[in-house]
Design brief:
alpha+beta, 6-stranded mixed β-sheet
Length: about 350
């Protein structure tokens, strides 16, 4: 399995420019965030898509082995001597893919039992840093195969947008109108954030990401795609192409001319470019776990699953505590999640 983009040097350097520090141990990228908890400065160590190798323990075939839990514990013991004082925990995102929510949930339920047997203090985090559910589109198949496997309505919507004059431009940080296009993207993103009740980074975050992603052939590339009609920008996405994977990182759209289906054409353009780049998979990166109609992001689920990819379900974040203050931090994290997901969302809706 190829290294995930969040384990790349590119991503570590980018995150270090935005509040994190970085440690590499046994070829594993570890991000560290230091912040204030009450009167103390404390830290959180975070390992996204944790490929924790250890020659003492055989690599588990599907992650359902107690050996994998022991791997995490061994790695944490080695790592803690490299971490700042008062590091609360090491948080792992487990890179294990399950075909169904039931299989994923069964695995998560079994971790506590495996931890007891393995004598490892590992706990499911209340907050998942990376989206545990996603859709992966196979780009090895032909373009005709991709078109054939997507829902017929999706093919229709792509062609409808083309027929009615929607155009898509691909923008990189060295493009002539980069600053203007970036401002347009951010205006669309603020519209989407207000409409859907989501948080966004400052403009400088996306600018830095795009500027770092102007690489030579074969390196990590970051591209901004904008769909427009008669000079009006209607939808935009930011993608990452690196190695064998393409990732749909951010997306936004206007409240205007949604009937022209700009979201479909901008996505289809990126998928074709990813295939041309040499990526083998296109990760839509984040969906609700099921197609439950009452889920607030049900529309997102329908949009991302309609392209013909395969749903995957990952375990999410797990913590190995290192400090007695960990319990206080988890409480603070729970309150913060409640505030952003419940209170602020209701306030935005008024």
């Amino acid at each position: 399995m190829a290294k995930h983009f969040q384990q790349s040097t590119f991503w570590a350097q980018f995150k270090c420019a935005h509040g994190w520090t970085h440690i590499t141990h046994n070829n594993v990228s570890v991000l560290v965030r230091t912040f204030r908890l009450g009167f103390l400065h404390v830290s959180l160590a975070y390992i996204p898509f944790a490929p924790v190798p250890d020659t003492r323990i055989p690599t588990p075939k599907a992650g359902k082995d107690i050996a994998y839990i022991k791997q995490l514990d061994y790695f944490t013991e080695e790592l803690k001597f490299l971490l700042p004082k008062r590091t609360l925990c090491v948080r792992y995102d487990l890179p294990l893919d399950f075909a169904t929510v039931a299989e994923r949930d069964a695995y998560n339920s079994s971790v506590s039992d495996m931890a007891v047997v393995a004598h490892v203090n590992i706990k499911k985090s209340r907050v998942d840093i990376q989206p545990p559910d996603s859709v992966l589109l196979d780009l090895v198949q032909s373009t005709e195969g991709i078109l054939a496997n997507m829902k017929s309505k999706w093919r229709y919507n792509v062609r409808y947008a083309q027929k009615h004059g929607v155009i898509v431009r691909a923008i990189k940080a060295d493009s002539p109108d980069f600053e203007k296009d970036l401002d347009s993207f951010y205006a669309l993103y603020k519209t989407t954030a207000s409409r859907d009740g989501i948080g966004i980074h400052p403009l400088s975050y996306y600018k830095d990401l795009l500027e770092r992603g102007v690489g030579s052939a074969g390196e990590t590339e970051i591209t901004l795609y904008i769909a427009s009609h008669e000079g009006e920008d209607l939808a935009a996405i930011i993608t990452l192409f690196g190695g064998e994977e393409a990732v749909y990182l951010y997306g936004c759209s206007s409240n205007n001319k949604r009937n022209l289906m700009p979201n479909y054409l901008v996505q289809w353009t990126a998928i074709q470019d990813a295939k041309q780049f040499g990526c083998k998979v296109y990760d839509f990166y984040g969906i609700p776990p099921t197609d439950a109609p009452n889920h607030p992001m049900h529309g997102l689920y329908l949009f991302k699953t309609g392209w013909g990819g395969s749903d995957i379900h990952r375990p999410g974040s797990f913590d190995i505590p290192l400090s007695p203050l960990y319990a206080l931090y988890i409480l603070a994290e729970k309150v913060r999640a409640f505030w952003f997901k419940r209170v602020q969302k209701k306030l935005r809706g008024r």
